[in-house]
Amino acid sequence: MVDNGADIRHVQAFWEHADLSTTQVYVHVSMMELREVYNKTHPSARD
């Protein structure tokens, strides 16, 4: 969500985190980065 422009406070509310720092831990590693690593390294992602 953050990678696509969502404000972190909206993500916090969506995930129902009481503290913003909890949300920050989860969004620290972006989904785009995770997807890149998955596509480069996971056997199921290879053709």
TrEMBL record:
Entry keywords, A to Z: DNA recombination
Keyword set includes Signal: no
Domain Tyr recombinase intervals: 1-39
PROSITE patterns in the record: TYR_RECOMBINASE
The keyword Ion transport is annotated on this UniProt entry: no
Protein's name in the database: Tyr recombinase domain-containing protein
Organism name: Shewanella inventionis
InterPro entries, alphabetized: DNA_brk_join_enz, Integrase-like_cat_sf, Integrase_catalytic
